[in-house]
Write a structure and sequence with these properties.
The chain is of the alpha/beta class. The protein contains 14 helices and 15 strands. The strands form two sheets. It has a nine-stranded mixed beta sheet. A six-stranded parallel beta sheet has the order 3-2-1-4-5-6, with helices on both faces. The longest helix has 20 residues, at 350-369.
């Protein structure tokens, strides 16, 4: 099989830490071209990761490189719509970093253009690709915790962790480029993961996203606090809490069913959450009938044969520790390639990314109306300070 030629637009920190290493590890993939508006960064990425060419103009890259089959867009959110549409119109498959776009109109413009040009569109909502979250999804779909009717996703992380340690630029501090922070940067992960685990589209949203803590002179005008309530079409309720001021990272997701509970985490551990995945179910199981992932990690507490002689097995929490490597981005990259080669629908498809953006925009609309906002949105909602440019 011929290698799939990939280009990368935006060679900053997320490309450096996640996408380039994953592409390098992937089989049947060749890094054709890299593009960044900063010439030094583009050149350095080419040399370090072995690309054939570097560019500072993505349109020139698309025009000159007929050996591209797919593109990873890891540029700031403001440019996702313009670049995504241009790549789709060239017939290139797309992996676009989260958030898919800044406004709901931009997001659906990308989705519709990808459909019109029959290209794959995948969104970089990488948290779905951690094993603990995939195992949680499998257990939910198997009915282990019964009917899911409530969930909570959080991501509390001071912006300094990223900005002072790994960021190449400061675009995340500027809402006219990033669109937002707590609601659309960290929130993009929490919103997407919770909707996926609950397994039902969002019906309506109410929330708050604004700057309440951080000094604007140092950290910019982006929102640093976001609280979102979502009502899903199946009647379930979802709650998202994100901030950019917590001095220690806290990230976890809770899913509550009428027969059990699942907790997951990936970004940090603490005394409150000591395992990346924890499962409790009130269902009756014989040992041999336990879901495989629970059986593998259900170590005895009192006596080595306790689960073999107790019928059904005792009901208790089971803590599960998946391997740290390969990481989420490796699995994400492998999945993207598999979707192209075998004509599969991406796990994080464009419509999922657009729905997450709808939720983000609905939060800002909710602050205007001071009430619940129905989805899908009937009009384009533009976050504070953001100025959309391109329109298809």
């Amino acid at each position: 099989m011929d290698k799939i030629g990939i280009g990368v637009i935006g060679c900053g920190s997320i490309a450096e830490l996640a996408h380039f290493p994953s592409i390098k590890r992937a089989k049947n993939v060749e890094l054709i071209a890299v593009c960044d508006t900063n010439e030094e960064i583009a050149k350095r990425a080419k040399e370090k990761w072995g690309a054939k060419a570097w560019y500072t103009d993505y349109e020139k890259m698309l025009k000159e490189r007929d050996d591209l089959k797919a593109v990873v867009i890891a540029s700031p959110p403001k440019f996702h719509c313009e670049q995504g549409i241009a790549c789709a119109e060239k017939g290139l498959h797309l992996l676009i970093e989260k958030p898919l776009a800044v406004t709901n109109k931009e997001a659906w413009d990308i989705v519709n253009t990808a459909k019109e040009n029959k290209v794959k569109l995948m969104v970089g909502c990488d948290r779905r690709f951690w094993p603990q979250n995939q195992w949680a999804k499998n257990l939910i779909e198997e009915g282990v915790i019964g009917k899911v009717m409530m969930g909570r996703a959080t991501m509390h992380e001071h912006v300094k962790f990223y900005q002072e340690n790994i960021a190449f630029t400061d675009f995340r501090l500027h809402p006219e480029i990033a669109g937002g922070s707590a609601v659309s940067d960290t929130g993009a992960h929490a919103i997407d993961l919770l909707i996926w685990l609950i397994g039902s589209p969002v019906k309506r949203v109410i929330g708050i996203a604004d700057r309440r803590v951080l000094d604007e002179r140092r950290w910019g005008k982006c929102d640093d606090t976001a609280v979102i309530m979502m009502e899903h079409e199946n009647g379930a309720l979802g709650y998202v809490s994100c901030n950019r001021f917590s001095p220690v990272v806290s990230q976890f997701t809770e899913v509550y069913g009428d027969e059990g509970t699942i907790f997951t985490s990936s970004d940090a551990q603490n005394p409150y959450q000591t395992a990346p995945l924890a499962v409790y179910t009130t269902k009756d199981y014989e040992y041999e009938d336990l879901p495989e992932i629970i059986r593998k990690y259900r170590w005895p507490q009192i006596f080595w044969a306790e689960d073999l002689i107790t019928h059904p097995v005792s009901k208790r929490w089971v803590s599960i520790y998946p391997p740290r490597e390969p990481n989420n981005y490796f699995y994400l990259c492998q999945h993207f390639i598999d979707c192209i080669v075998n004509d599969k629908e991406p796990l994080t498809k464009g419509e999922d990314g657009a729905q997450a953006v709808e939720v983000m925009c609905a939060v800002f609309k909710s602050m205007e109306t001071k009430g619940w906002v129905d989805l899908p949105l009937e009009e384009e909602v533009v976050p504070p300070y953001y100025k959309p440019e391109r329109r298809k």
